[in-house]
Amino acid sequence: SKQQIGVIGMAVMGKNLALNIESRGYSVSIFNRTGERTKEVAAEHPDKKLVPTYTVEEFVASLEQPRKIMLMVKAGKATDLTIQSLLPHLDKGDILIDGGNTFFKDTIRRNEELADSGINFIGTGVSGGEEGALKGPSIMPGGQKEAYDLVAPIFEKIAAVAEEDGEPCVTYIGPNGAGHYVKMAHNGIEYGDMQLIAESYDIMSRLLGLSVDEMADIFKEWNTGELDSYLIEITADILTHKDEETGKPIVDVILDTAGNKGTGKWTSQSALDLGVPLPLITESVFARYISAMKDERVEASSKIKGVDVQNFTGDKKVFIEKIREALYFSKIMSYAQGFAQLRIASEEYGWDLQYGNIAKIFRAGCIIRAKFLQKITDAYDRNPELKNLLLDDYFNDVTQRYQQSVREVVAAAIQAGVPVPTFSSAIAYYDSYRSADLPANIIQAQRDYFGAHTFERKDKEGIFHHEWYVD
Ligand code: NBP
């Protein structure tokens, strides 16, 4: 008998996803370029309905039609090569699902190319890392809707479930690259959240002189309120771990050089391409880059003085609450920017994204899962056409109430020489967005002065040029 679905790529993600699908009662064919790996996976799980196959022909022939094939291979060239190897063996109506972290423009291209041969192509974001893949990820599928409908029952069973209403964290995102775009934006938002948490830690550590244990308790406490989220939860936990060798908190021995796989960069690049302001996430990408310049920073630290950090004299408890408010405020700025970008991308690429549903499927399974996402869904339920989350009553009210804390925290950090690129960017965005007048009049005057680029006027319609060089 034939299998209901096939998974290609038996590295950690593909293996775990195959096990997840199998655990929901499906029979799964598995295949990996290196057959040894397929053998290992099958041998590790003899009791599971995982059917190992060792050639592409054997793999494809083992599947029910229309075939459902999930690719979990390295994004980029490996994905193209895998698709090419499958193509001669597929039939019209078969469905290829790419669950890798693929650049959305590659997905648009593959979707178009394969459509010519009658093959459906679903580019799907899968978030939640290894554990998510095994126990329930958040899934962001994009591609032919009719094809998605055929795999939807499987996806709905393997996805994470939102605590609030028991709904699976998967929804059809839109045509072609929409799913991978949303996954990319999710990752960008993840970069922002992580950097904001890192800055909060830095302020508490360097400005308030709190110990790692004290900070663990604070994050734990924060996780019971508005900031309740996976990333706050794991940060609290991380801070309780000790290094086995030295007995020190593990964070004190981990090198302060952040890696990245490029998805944050893609999000910023797309924002630049679309002309959408995405300063907070972009600052978080740059923060990783500057962190990676460790040797240069160490050298600079001995040459460049900055300011001496004064002992904090205020009420620490009060200030910690301000940091919490600043963090929540800044997180809202980041999501406001990210969702505004989704809106412009949706218009540009014709995706008709449903922002409230997107926030909903982030509520569980994925790295940015948080109570807070329900607020975003609620905002789009109130107004599906919302231009920016900051215009929603809830977000407007809470940011209005918390803005003073951000101003104080950012000012104190700057006075003390503690870098807060994302916190300061958050308040700058807020102040820019709510300013009816910005100093761009000066920029337009300069452009007109040196390049005769012309300008518009506040008081009447039309295009104007001023004669700047009259003697
Ligand atoms: P990797 O991204 O490390 O990819 C390894 C897999 O790709 C192996 O099965 C490998 O086969 C296969 N592969 C390579 Br490499 N080159 C190939 C080629 N030319 N032809 C065919 N297969 C090839 O695995 P992963 O970490 O499990 O991630 C899988 C996908 O899921 C990636 O796109 C990743 O970005 C995405 N993702 C990962 C995470 C995560 O937390 N790790 C989360 C969400 C999404 P081999 O065994 O023969 O070398």
Walk me through the structure.
With 471 residues, the chain is an alpha/beta fold. It folds into three domains: 5-176, 3-Layer(aba) Sandwich (Rossmann fold), CATH 3.40.50.720; 185-433, N-(1-d-carboxylethyl)-l-norvaline Dehydrogenase, domain 2 (Orthogonal Bundle), CATH 1.10.1040.10; 440-471, 6-Phosphogluconate Dehydrogenase, domain 3 (Single alpha-helices involved in coiled-coils or other helix-helix interfaces), CATH 1.20.5.320. It is built from 19 helices and seven strands. It has helices at residues 12-23, 35-44, 56-61, 77-86, 104-116, 129-135, 145-158, 178-207, 212-222, 230-238, 263-274, 279-292, 294-303, 316-349, 355-361, 373-382, 393-416, 421-433, 440-451, and strands at residues 5-8, 28-31, 50-52, 68-71, 95-98, 120-127, 138-142. The chain has a seven-stranded mixed sheet, sandwiched between helices. The longest helix is centred in the C-terminal third of the chain and has 34 residues, at 316-349. The structure holds nicotinamide 8-bromo-adenine dinucleotide phosphate. Nicotinamide 8-bromo-adenine dinucleotide phosphate binds next to helix 1, helix 4 and helix 6.
